[in-house]
Amino acid sequence: MPSPRQLADLPYARHLRAFDEPLTDGGDYDTVHLDGADFDGAEGGNARFLECAFSSVNFTAGHLRGARFNDVWLDGVRWVGTDLAETDWLDAELIGCVLAGLETFGATLHRVTFHRCKFESVNLRTATLREVTFADCLLRDVDFSGAALTRVEFPGSALEGVRFAGARMDGADLRDATRLEITDGHDALRGSVITGAQLLELAPMFADVLGVKVADTGTASSRRTSDRRSGRR
Q1: Neighbouring C-beta atoms of residue 89, cutoff 10 Å
Q2: 7-230 CATH
Q3: What are phi and psi of 23, to 5 degrees?
Q4: Closest Cα partner for 80 from 64, 58, 65, 63?
Q5: Whole-angstrom distance between the N-terminal and C-terminal Cα of the chain?
Q6: Backbone torsion region of residue 101, taken as left when φ is above 0, otherwise alpha when ψ lies between -120 and 50, otherwise beta
Q7: CA 10 to CA 1: how far, in whole Å?
Q8: Which InterPro entries match (predicted)?
């Protein structure tokens, strides 16, 4: 897994210009650097961010639904209670970011990497994730219901209370996840890759999905022996 890039490593770093203005709906932002800014209740629906960098920026509430993030780099960004539904992310890198209470349903993420990010109560229902990597992240109470996960990886990440009901997986790789706690949607793991140890941990849930009753070995034979001794047939 490659190390996260620094700001100076970005191919467009020398073209970046400081940006400290309010965001606007439908705004067009090209090669700007948002550094240390606080966007409380920002209105940036359908905005377009191309080759932009975000450093230590805070987004609280606000509306960025339908925004497009193309070739962007985010370091230490906090997203809290923000509407990011139906956003489009292409070639994005997020480092040490916090994402809490977000509406990101219907979003499209392609070639996106999350490094050491914390997800808390994030709604990714019906989202499309393709070639997305969650590296050393914490995903707590994240909802992937109805989402499509293609070649998605979770190296070093902990999944706690994650939901996959109705999700579709194609080559999703869960083998390197440090924790795999799935609340529902175990049947949606079809098409994913897991380890033998993970299979043993998930076996009771798989049995429940299949309607298989698991009982201690020997119980049936012991009952038959007891019936013979009592004369019951």
Answers
A1: 23
A2: 2.160.20.80
A3: -80, 155
A4: 58
A5: 64
A6: left
A7: 18
A8: 5peptide_repeat, Pentapeptide-BTB/POZ_domain
